[in-house]
Design brief:
0% of the residues lie in helices and 31% in strands. It is an all-beta fold. The protein is built from no helices and 19 strands. It has strands at residues 6-9, 14-17, 21-24, 26-29, 34-37, 45-49, 53-55, 58-60, 62-65, 70-74, 80-84, 123-124, 129-130, 159-162, 164-174, 179-181, 217-226, 230-232, 264-267.
Length: 270
């Protein structure tokens, strides 16, 4: 006879599991206990419980990879699971500073999952002078000297999305006092522009911040559900703007990235 294991997290204890299918006889997370799921993944967490489940502590799954790929799985009860995360546009990069008639380069617009790079600063030395170069996508523009613009933050491939969870309980699922945390994480910051010296070199523009991670998805189905948990499904904060370098005359900071979208939960029994 195939006997399923129990998964019990005692109060004050933290356990970590892999994001895969776990077939259990019973699931218990006591108050102040935490069940974490390994970050840096692209997989559903599937918890199939033959008996009862009591979640009075915290179930936390964060750090899935950012991108618009569709993530699919099939649960032991035959449920077909599928979710596609969204990709947002990051903040724009700031213009590089200018000296005399030597203009700084333009910052780039943010793109899918990344902030725009900052423009390079202009320069006016005794023996040479010239403008800064514009940024390209998330790469900061070169300055006339070494006064380049800051790179934009890039969320693509970063592990900042909230997790995907399917919980199937054949008995009673008690959520009283529980927390389900599938919130997104903060997006990467824009980089600062290189400083100018105020005499012959203007500072570079700051890079734009990347979008924050999207909140995750929690799907559950039980023969009997008691209470509801505190769902934490909000998107992550956008990446901070990259500041312009010092002495970026006429230049600018980048723009902060947008917060990620909020995730959702579904009681499949309703």
């Amino acid at each position: 006879m195939d006997v399923r294991p129990e998964l019990i997290v005692r109060g004050g204890e933290t356990k970590t599991i892999l994001p895969r299918t776990h077939q259990l006889s019973r699931l218990v997370i006591e108050p102040t206990g935490t069940l974490n799921v390994v970050q840096r993944s692209i997989s559903w967490l599937i918890l199939h419980v033959e008996g009862d489940a009591n979640i009075a502590g915290t179930l936390r799954y964060q750090g899935m990879r950012y991108g618009n790929e569709t993530i699919e799985a099939t649960a032991p009860d035959g449920a077909a699971l599928s979710h596609q995360f969204s990709v947002m546009t990051g903040g724009y990069g700031g213009r590089g500073g200018s000296l005399a008639s030597n203009a700084g380069g333009a910052g780039a617009r943010g793109g899918p999952g990344y902030g725009g790079g900052g423009g390079g600063g202009g320069g006016a030395a005794v023996t040479s002078a010239g403008p800064g170069h514009p940024a390209r996508d998330f790469v900061g523009g070169d300055g006339y000297f070494d006064n380049r613009g800051g790179d934009g933050g890039n969320s693509m491939g970063a592990y900042i999305n909230g997790g995907l969870v399917y919980l199937r309980v054949m008995g009673t699922l008690n959520f009283n006092g529980g927390v389900i945390d599938l919130s997104g994480l903060k997006g990467p910051n824009g980089s600062p522009g290189v400083n100018g010296n105020g005499r012959t070199i203007a500072g570079g523009g700051g890079g734009g911040g990347a979008p924050g991670g999207e909140g995750g998805v929690f799907q559950f189905l039980a023969n009997n559900v008691v209470g509801l948990p505190d769902f934490k499904l909000e998107g992550g904060q956008g990446g901070d703007l990259g500041p312009m370098g010092r002495n970026a005359f006429g230049g600018g900071n980048g723009q902060a990235g947008p917060a990620g979208p909020t995730g959702y939960s579904i009681d499949l029994g309703k």
